[in-house]
Amino acid sequence: MFGLFRENIRIAVDSIKSQLLRTILTIVIIGIGIWALVGILSAVKALESTISSDFASMGANTFNIQRYEFGVRVQRGNQGETQKINPVISFNNAREFLERYEYPYSQVSLSFRGTGSAEIKYENEKTDPDIQVFGVNEHYLANTGTDVERGRALTYFDVENNNKVAIIGSDFTKNLFVNDDPIGKTISIRGVKFKVIGILESKGATFGNNQDLKVLIPIKIARSIFTQPNINYTISVRVDDKAMMAGAQDEAIVAFRNIRGLNPIEENNFGIERSDDLINRIASITGVLEISAWIISIITILGSSIALMNIMLVSVTERTREIGVRKAMGAKRSTISTQFFIETILIGQFGSILGIVLGILTGIAFAAIFDFKFALPWGALIGATVISFLTAVLAGSYPATKAAKLDPIESLRYE
User: Fold this and answer.
1) What is the pLDDT of residues 24-71, one digit of tens each?
2) What confidence score (pLDDT) does residue 30 get?
């Protein structure tokens, strides 16, 4: 049995070599369909895993009060689409919320981005003017799921006593502090000197935004350095138990509505966002992309199945005399049909391998260009293999049946 199977494989390979151009074109067509599937899903998987891990770092027990709801920036007016403008979350809003909000087993983080173009100096060295500086309170690190790799975090006393201390991102050890231990060293931000007390754990970059090139300083000191008008603050609330999230969120909405002076019939002029809500929305968006990839792939592969069936019908016609000889020597119908089935499946699998390799390379290139985390889409790889196999079976059924039913005498007469 194994010897017969091996002989059929050898005959199939010889047949493929004899009609190499047509076979290559068919393999390429199948490969394009698989490439579309694996390539798109590899890119989507890299995008989804990167964004989900970034938002998941906030923790399932955390929600933010921010200026706008995620993705809701525009409302339709009488004259078409008009921009919905919510007031910024001012420092007075944030401070009042911190004083009012007393939900049990919760902690509130206040933060704002002072600048995204700071130049950090250390002795005679300085960075490029592309450093992000954030003013934060003592709960910022815990609420954002950020860990200190070395040194210590900010404390309540650092914030309240206006201590000039700073926590820096891990990339500073690759440029500004290549030869020195940053802990205890003094850096300068806009002429103000800060003592480095900690180094953040590396988080990488998302959409070109390097999370490891930032500096965290106490929020009150930051307010004295960055005095631009209309600074928008972020309020983050973290509860110890996820079961308390709904109650904590409801109380936060009531408290902030009162701070904003909204009456009961007015809509919120601020947004509430939970990290798991964002992840679910991202999953729904990437789900649409995945369905689109499957549809594109299936349409392309259906086209390739027609090409594959055509090449096998031509092969049956060209090898009619060979089929007659084999039948005259005692070959059964099942043996003839199996031979053509194996040939069809081989072509389909060659196309599948080509498409999978190109798709994985596309995903790796996409992840490298946008600095995403590459992850193999195992579902797509398995699906591509199964689809190409089924396509080969369907495309090879009629040619294999036709070859098996040929009359041996008429086949021997065929020229």
Assistant:
1) 887 887 888 788 778 888 887 777 777 666 655 555 688 899 888 765
2) 81
Confirm if 106 and 189 have CB atoms less than 8 A apart: no
pLDDT tens, position by position, 95-106: 999 999 999 989
The answer to whether the CB of 48 falls within 8 A of the CB of 54 is: no
Q: Give the CA-trace dihedral at 392, 393, 397, 403, to 10 degrees.
A: 70
- Rounded CA-CA distance 129/134 in Å is 15
In DSSP notation, 38-81 reads: HHHHHHHHHHHHHHHHHHHTT-TTEEEEESSBTTB-EEEETTEE
The three-point CA angle 177-178-182 to 5° equals 30
DSSP string, 232-272: PPEEEEEES-GGGHHHHHHHHHHHHHHHHT--TTSPPSSEE
Instruction: Take residue 374 and report the two structure tokens written for it.
Output: 């590459």
Model pLDDT, residue 294: 78
User: Hey, what are 406's tokens?
Assistant: 């040929």
Model confidence at 277, pLDDT cuts 50, 70, 90, reads: low
What does residue 21 show for φ and ψ, rounded to 5 degrees?
Answer: -60, -50
Model confidence, pTM: 0.64
Q: How far apart are CA 36 and CA 377, in angstroms?
A: 13
Give the integer Cα–Cα distance in Å for 384 and 406: 33
